[in-house]
Amino acid sequence: MGTLVIFKENEMTVLEDISEETYLNMKKESADLQEEHPPYLIWHEDLHFDYGY
């Protein structure tokens, strides 16, 4: 699970607890859209603060 940040036009959306598979599906779907300014997606795996990494 991780955090997904979506930048689209002048908006930023943060979604937490998103699997990498879901991120890849969203990225593929956004690439398939024929928009002038497609959204920019960034996913980062959550850190385990209990273990220090």
Describe the structure.
- The protein is an alpha+beta fold and 53 residues long.
- The chain has one domain.
- Helices cover 25% and strands 40% of the residues.
- The protein has 1 helix and 3 strands.
- It has one helix at 20-32; strands at 2-8, 11-18, 40-45.
- It has a 3-stranded antiparallel beta sheet.
- Strand 1 and strand 2 (11-18) form a beta hairpin.
- The longest helix is centred in the middle third of the chain and has 13 residues, at 20-32.
- The radius of gyration is 13 Å and the shape is elongated.
- The two termini are 15 Å apart.
Structural descriptors:
elongated; 53 residues; alpha+beta; three-stranded antiparallel beta sheet
Which strand order spans the largest sheet, edge to edge or round the barrel?
Answer: 2-1-3
DSSP summary, beta strand count: 3
For the residues shown, what is the average pLDDT? 85
Task: Please give the radius of gyration in angstroms.
Answer: 13 Å
